[in-house]
Amino acid sequence: MRAFTQHTGLVALMDRSNVDTDQIIPKQFLKRIERTGFGEFLFFDWRYHDDGSENADFELNLPRYQGASILVTRRNFGCGSSREHAPWALEQYGLRVIIASSFADIFFNNCFKNGMLPIRLEEDVIEDLFQRVEASEGHQFTVDLESCTITDGAGLRIEFDVDDFRRHCLMNGLDDIALTLEQEDKITAYETARGIG
């Protein structure tokens, strides 16, 4: 998993509430046996028309948001089924940070396990971010996990909260397997003492 300490990137806005995992990565793409290649199918039903042509009205298809790596959206992002494919698709599309007033719990947890930082902020703060980004094409944020702040080049400074353990894991690029491997010496000693392996 990629470590996350500080990220500066273009901000995209998605003015939608209750964005569910079935829209983030539709069910027909869950048959893949690989863990890669999901980014191209992100928001597939919104990004493309039935004939396969690009939907020019969809937020992430707008020219001003091409290459965005930070998404600001509304409440209850990632609701619906618990599929881990949703954060895979978002991360493989190029998003590193998602900012919303609330997230579905399982989706929220899965983001951390896949190297993305979900940030919860109050709705009035989200509204201010929307206004800032809408008023300034090419708007960028710097998200610093060490200081737990969001800044921009126009005087913005917002503090956010992250659980200490999740923060440690993200900053050190530790997924569940890597966390377990940190205890490899103890595991080996345990197995040796019991004649295992």
CATH topology annotation: Aconitase, domain 4
**How many strands?**
7
Q: What is the CATH-assigned architecture? A: Alpha-Beta Barrel
Count of alpha and pi helical runs: 8
Strand content: 15-25%
> What is the share of helical residues?
25-40%
Average pLDDT, to the nearest integer? Answer: 92
What order do the strands of the largest sheet run in, or round the barrel if closed? 4-3-2-1-5-6-7
Write down the secondary-structure element order: EHHEHEHEHEEEHHH
State the end-to-end CA separation: 28 Å
Largest sheet: 7 strands, mixed
- Low-confidence residue ranges: none
Look at the structure and name the CATH superfamily.
Aconitase, domain 4
Number of domains: 1
Label the structural class: alpha/beta
Query: What is the C-level CATH assignment?
Result: Alpha Beta
Radius of gyration, taken over Cα atoms and rounded to an integer in Å:
19 Å
